[in-house]
Amino acid sequence: MTKDISIKIKFFAYARELVGRKDITVEMNSGSTVKDLMEHVLTKYPSLKEISNHIIIAVNKNTCTSDRRLKDGDQVAILPPVSGG
């Protein structure tokens, strides 16, 4: 299967610190889900595993679940856990 969709990923706050970059672009297979994308990202950036159970994912500025299918040109935001009061 060919990689036929391009996804831009933006990292925010502590996630950006762990990755050392503010954004990346990855090529994925058509039909890939957010879960597939996160598996790819966690393999490439294992330091993110420390917060992976608490990450919030937004696709095109809307939070979503891991089963959301991605399409070419989607922008994914990886937001670390939020704390405060």
Provide an overview of this structure.
With 85 residues, the chain is an alpha+beta fold. Helices cover 21% and strands 32% of the residues. It contains two helices and five strands. The chain has helices at 13-19, 34-44; strands at 3-11, 23-29, 56-59, 62-63, 75-79. Strands 2-1-5-3-4 form a five-stranded mixed beta sheet. The termini are far apart.
What is the strand and helix layout of this fold?
Layout: E1 3-11, H1 13-19, E2 23-29, H2 34-44, E3 56-59, E4 62-63, E5 75-79
Parallel strand pairs: 1-5
Antiparallel strand pairs: 1-2, 3-4, 3-5
How many individual domains? 1
What is the class in the CATH system?
Alpha Beta
What is the rounded distance between the termini?
A: 47 Å
Output the helix-strand order: EHEHEEE
Say which CATH homologous superfamily is assigned: Beta-grasp domain
Q: What is the makeup of the main sheet? A: 5 strands, mixed
CATH architecture term? Roll
Shape: globular
- Total helical elements: 2
Contiguous runs where pLDDT drops below 50 for at least 5 residues: none
Q: CATH topology, anyone?
A: Ubiquitin-like (UB roll)
* Helix share, percent: 10-25%
Rg, please? 12 Å
